[in-house]
């Protein structure tokens, strides 16, 4: 693999509460997952970050989540299919309108937090999100957890899927992410993160938290924008990959 996409979750501030350094991250990543207002983000802040992404040629995606501002979308929820399909459509519709006003286009959907982790393995909620995406725009690409059942489920439903790896998250031996409630779930050392991802790009594998080597094929690497060392991790990762001849570019066209 000679090229890889770097993505980050942006637009997650809410009114006067900032979250992460969106401007710095937009100088590093090639794709930006923009909050849609359900787990984070407010319209003025979302529009602002979309405008900067458009100026810098960063591809944008809809970061749809559960309607849970207080829990930042990280709490498990069990909406009905009727709700989840409509919630998915509603969030994509909102960001499509804001993106148009900002002079860019939404190219993909990356579910957020608990929704992302649930639909990776929960076929019913996955089907609802897939249905919602297809109802709005079947050309949208779905970004999903590498190796999870949703990848084949979405492809069977004729969506294009991009698989992603998490730069700063520890993995279990089965390829799932280590729960944030457990120690060691988030990796804060930029050099360690860069070494892990260089291995993933070159060897399509990663070392799980118990030391086992697991296969991991991904076309995109996620860097969380809300951790204290996020910008340092992102820039170290970008520089390390570039120094080893890996081209950094989005899986979709900016437009």
Automatic annotation (TrEMBL):
Keyword tags: ATP-binding, Hydrolase, Nucleotide-binding
HAMAP family documented for this protein: PxpA (MF_00691)
The protein's name: 5-oxoprolinase subunit A
Quaternary structure, from the entry: Forms a complex composed of PxpA, PxpB and PxpC.
Record function comment: Catalyzes the cleavage of 5-oxoproline to form L-glutamate coupled to the hydrolysis of ATP to ADP and inorganic phosphate.
Record has Nucleotide-binding as a keyword: yes
The family this protein is said to belong to: Belongs to the LamB/PxpA family.
Keyword Lipoprotein listed: no
EC number(s) recorded for this UniProt protein: 3.5.2.9
Reaction catalysis annotation: 5-oxo-L-proline + ATP + 2 H2O = L-glutamate + ADP + phosphate + H(+)
């Amino acid at each position: 693999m000679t090229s890889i996409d770097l993505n980050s979750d942006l637009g997650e501030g809410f009114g006067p509460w900032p979250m992460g350094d969106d401007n710095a991250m937009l100088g590093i990543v090639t794709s930006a997952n923009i909050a849609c207002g359900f787990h984070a983000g407010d319209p003025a802040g979302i529009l602002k970050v979309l405008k900067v992404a458009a100026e810098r040629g960063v591809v944008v995606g809809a970061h749809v989540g559960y309607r849970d501002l207080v829990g930042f979308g990280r709490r498990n929820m069990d909406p009905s299919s009727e709700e989840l399909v409509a919630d998915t459509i509603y969030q994509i519709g909102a960001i499509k309108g804001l993106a148009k006003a900002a002079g860019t286009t939404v190219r993909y959907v990356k579910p957020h937090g608990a929704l992302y982790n649930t639909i990776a393995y929960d076929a019913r909620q996955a089907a609802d999100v897939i249905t919602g995406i297809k109802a709005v725009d079947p050309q949208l690409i779905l970004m999903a957890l590498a190796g999870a059942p949703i990848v084949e489920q979405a492809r069977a439903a004729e969506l294009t899927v991009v698989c992603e790896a998490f730069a700063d998250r520890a993995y279990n031996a089965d390829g799932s992410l280590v729960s944030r409630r457990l120690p060691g779930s988030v990796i804060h050392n930029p050099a360690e993160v860069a070494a892990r991802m260089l291995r993933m790009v070159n060897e399509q594998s990663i070392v799980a938290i118990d030391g086992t080597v697991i296969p991991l094929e991904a076309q995109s690497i996620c860097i969380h924008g809300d951790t204290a060392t996020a910008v340092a991790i992102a820039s170290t990762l970008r520089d390390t990959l570039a120094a080893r001849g890996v081209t950094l570019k989005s899986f979709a066209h900016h437009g």
